[in-house]
Amino acid sequence: MFDTHELGRRPGALKRLTRSAAAPKDFGIDGVIGVPEGAPVELRMRLESVMEGVLVTGTARATAEGECVRCLEPVRQDVAADFQEMFSYPDADDRGRSKQAEPADDAEDDEDRFFIEDGLLDLEPVLRDAVVLALPMQPVCRETCAGLCSECGIRLDENPDHHHDAVDIRWASLQGLAETIKDGEKDNMDGADPGADEKQEK
């Protein structure tokens, strides 16, 4: 929460802030990458008073942690997220909305708006959206990461010459037949030829 009382409600009034806040829970992309709960989030903001509320513009910086989607190694990444949001005064409707607006339209508009309550504005949902958009959907430890072997799971960056002799599944049954034929030929060579014995006896 940030206090806007010192800013006042005179349009044009400006206040710059630099703050460090603790990251809330689930501050990122679930199961992929995010800022750990309690980690510092550095904020540089400008609060500007306008007719219908306070316009907040700033940048959030933090360090996100996750794992590489290719090799599953830990990943740490610095994140800088820009944000801008209007926080409306509770009585902004009296001045900032058309009197002819339908109640249903008002309800829909309220879902997309942020309000100042008792002179305080809650930046958490704004920061959460900004940070999530700044995070990579598929983080990698480095762009050239080769990942893991799909057959045995070994890390390919540490074993660049690693490979498996692949057998085309379409030829697998024929390969088995070939081995059977080879085994039969070997048995015939090892066994005595009855015709040859009879010739020797004569």
From TrEMBL:
Pfam families: YceD. InterPro entries: YceD (IPR003772). Residues 92-102 have a biased composition (Basic and acidic residues). It comes from the Bacteria. Residues 89-111, 181-202 are annotated as: Disordered. Transmembrane segments: none annotated. PANTHER family: LARGE RIBOSOMAL RNA SUBUNIT ACCUMULATION PROTEIN YCED HOMOLOG 1, CHLOROPLASTIC (PTHR34374:SF1). This is DUF177 domain-containing protein. It comes from Streptomyces camponoticapitis.
